[in-house]
Amino acid sequence: MSAADLTLDFSVVRDLRKREGMTLEEVSRKSGISIAGLSKLERNQNMIELDTLYRLARVFSLSATDLLNLAESCSARCKDAEVYQSGPFDFEKVSFKGIDCFHAKADKGDELSKPEAHGDEFEICWLLKGGIRITLPREVHTLAPGQALKFDAALAHSYEILEDSEMTIIHIEKTHRF
């Protein structure tokens, strides 16, 4: 990890302030942080203390953790897809913290009864083309193009390909619920 990856970017405070239509003076009054201190923070010219982080987050109706996460990840991240096969399925996969996104293709008649190992996460399958049947312990769902199914990935489940199919599958850690 480079030094740039470890740096927090509190220019996000300026973005939040402008989005709320607030001036530095208003944020200063509501947070008790000096205008000079806020200005330096927005320009990444000083370090933030925990108490300052907490007071500033409250101005924007955020938790201190949420504000810190925004400062940590305000830049977009670009990744290349990993290409692989699992059983009869062809996959492209990209992963970010808390989420794995798959683009999958499978041929009619294919089945995957023991999908990739799962942690404590949700799975969403969005069918783009074809037809599939997803079997869960007490229910069966047949999807047509444009339909999606969300379920607890910890449950035993299988995919049966009814027609040549293309789908997007997303695994989301339960701690990142939407």
Automatic annotation (TrEMBL):
Q: Which GO terms describe its cellular component?
A: cytosol
Query: Signal peptide: which range, if any?
Result: none
Q: Which SUPFAM superfamilies match?
A: lambda repressor-like DNA-binding domains, RmlC-like cupins
The answer to keyword DNA-binding applying to this record is yes
Which UniProt keywords are present, listed alphabetically? Answer: DNA-binding
Please give the name of this protein.
HTH cro/C1-type domain-containing protein
Q: Is DNA-binding among this UniProt entry's keywords?
A: yes
Task: Fetch the Gene3D superfamilies from UniProt.
Answer: Jelly Rolls, lambda repressor-like DNA-binding domains
